[in-house]
Amino acid sequence: MEDNNRHKGMRKRLVKSLYEKGIRGTQILDAIQNIPRHFFLDKAFEEHAYDDKAFPIDQQQTISQPYTVAFQTELLNIKKRDKVLEIGTGSGYQSSVLAYMGARVYTIERHKSLYQNAKKMFQKLNLIGIRSFFADGNKGLGEFAPFDKILVTAAANHLPPALKEQLKIGGVLVIPVGDENSQTMLRITRVSETDFKQDAFGEFRFVPLLKGKNSWLDI
What we know:
Elements: H1 5-20, H2 26-34, E1 55-56, E2 62-63, H3 66-76, E3 83-87, H4 93-100, E4 104-109, H5 112-124, E5 130-134, E6 147-152, H6 161-165, E7 167-178, E8 183-190, E9 196-204
Parallel strand pairs: 3-4, 3-6, 4-5, 6-7
Antiparallel strand pairs: 1-2, 7-8, 8-9
């Protein structure tokens, strides 16, 4: 696939629309301007890759709409060298945005085909600073904890205890929590070993956060 001036022009219009919708983080907008989202989608969707919409990918999953990617990222307040745990690699687009912003990304995917495809994409884009894991995201990555930031890109019906425990004091967890129809975007800040502060930021809709691993490969 190529990334030509037409694609870059479409990204510029997307960035303008995100700014108009309230996204102000210059690093986030710069990442979205520079990462070719059409690489992460089926070629059938290429002409619409820079619409502010979610699209289906393999394993009945989705690539989130750019506004949602930008909104969650803005809530995290990413700093360079932040150690970030992402639950739900999916297409790898959100991981790429975080890495482009200078974060050290540890990303977990439970679907083996998505995990493998995303790893290939990270290599293709020469994105350093991303470590991929085929694992159950509900358990996090205790061996690499604590994390400065944790981002969950699937809907949980409750806060997974392991993720709260793996957050550094002063760290932030962003996660959509609710039932299958609607979830509330939460930002959890770890204040101390035992205390957490919770803020809510509107309603969203994500695919569910499931337990276990799926080793089925689409061949």
